[in-house]
Amino acid sequence: MKIDLREAKKLQTLKGWGTSACWWSQYCADEKTAEEIAELLYGDTGLGLNIYRYNIGGGTDPDNCRVKNPWRVTESFYKYDREKEEGEYDFSADKTAVSMMKRCLDKGNVDTLIVFANSPHYSHTSTGQASGSLLYHTCNLPMSNYRKFADYFLTCTQALIDMGFPVKYVSPINEPQWKWGGSYVWQEGCHYETEEMIAVYHIFAEEILKRRMDVKLYGPESGEMMGLTPEYIKAITADETIMKVMDIFAYHSYHDDNNPNIRLDFKKEIVEKYPQFRFDMSEWCELPNKSHTKNFKGALITARVIGQDLIYAGAESWTSWVAVNQFSINKEDGNDYSDATITATNDFSEWYVARRYWGFAHFAKYIPVNSICLDNGYFPDKNNDFNVFSFLTPNGETVTVVVNEGEERAFTIDGNFTEMKIIQSVDEDFLSEVYKGDYKSEITTPSNSILTVIAK
Fold first, then answer.
1. Last residue of a domain, which of 335, 370, 405?
2. Which helix (H) or strand (E) holds 48?
3. Which ranges constitute the DSSP H helices of 43-145?
4. Is 198 a member of any domain?
């Protein structure tokens, strides 16, 4: 198989890589651990991420909360007195999460800070809870409280800005199409019908303009690539006020890990039809998660999805779901099925890097912001087990990431190159420099491996 990079077509320019601080950062209190994790994610020796997602939580009423897992609720800056039916702000709250955010920003690589919400504050909801309505697929935010939600969220945002955090984007709605709430709840969440979402966004846009805030709307964090996504983008573009403060359409690429064709559909039906937007893939993890944290398959799937989201779907940035999640031990096989790049106990007394971190690293460490995606002419066959993704970096290097989920395979990379470096990961051996020297066109990739090939 031959990849001819002399014929590669230039595609979109990358705006970067990121992850979410929800919900782990509020529990990472030990300074040594916090520093090590910050470096792994945002430091120059780690992934060097430039996008940070901070969660403005819905808060927890201790007498009216159905979410039992403390890692699925968030401390709020707004302290509500249920008896007095009034509240006050305390911007010293959520201090561990805020401290982690500052630590990560101090690494010097973050240029995009997004604040987002899974739910309005519980005091604004119909149920008095931040975990959704008592009925599935029913909005938990009464229309009478739309502006209260906007005031709460933007007041918190302005407080963060006043603290010195350079917030660029506000994302008040997350995965509006999912049912949220009902008889079983497990985290903060809120369902919105399309017209409800637009009404909320419209008020947010009005308030951003009224307050002259130097932030933009970000969203709608659609929970899947297609589904209701075409309806959402059509409704957003029809509202002139929203469009004054919204130029990024953010979506999640869950549920289609093995379907590169749906990414082509997304690019054709959404990206190419709405050139006024930048398209950010703002959340992904393997879902359902079948790869335990020490299974290299998780790294292979992560790398494959990243490449396909960028090259086939046209994403301009790629952000993983939570950077850290709790140990999730399966009682039958004893393995940890945490879905994050790092996995930890609730108090971070134990933690380690999951295999999927290295799949992310093959892109984020070697393909910097402002690199250009390339169409190298390759598309996987029906087995989807061999993928090749190419990029042109700002300094003129060509980086090709090869994800081989099958048997050992040889291929060639043709181009006007004189030097080459190859970084390889296989199970138990990550980011090893296996070649550095003169350019060679023929390369062999081992079974179940990821290569990053840097040519210049």
1. 370
2. none
3. 95-105
4. yes
Please tell me whether the overall predicted TM-score, pTM, comes out greater than 0.85 for this model: yes
Domain range enclosing 396: 386-455
> Over the stretch 358-406, which tens digit does the pLDDT of each residue have?
999 999 999 999 999 999 999 999 999 999 999 999 999 999 999 999 9
What is the rounded CA–CA span in Å between residue 180 and residue 427? 37
**Strand 398-404 relative to strand 386-392, pairing:** antiparallel
Are 156 and 196 contacting, i.e. CB atoms less than 8 angstroms apart?
no
Quickly list DSSP for 197-210: HHHHHHHHHHHHHH
Within 223-318, where are the H helices?
229-237, 240-244, 260-266, 297-311
Chain Cα centroid distance, residue 186: 20
How far is the C-alpha of 115 from the C-alpha of 233, rounded, in Å? Answer: 21
* Residue 187 sits in the same domain as residue 289: yes
pLDDT in tens, 297-318: 999 999 999 999 999 999 999 9
CA atoms of 445 and 390, how far apart (whole Å): 16
Cα 175 from chain centre = 13
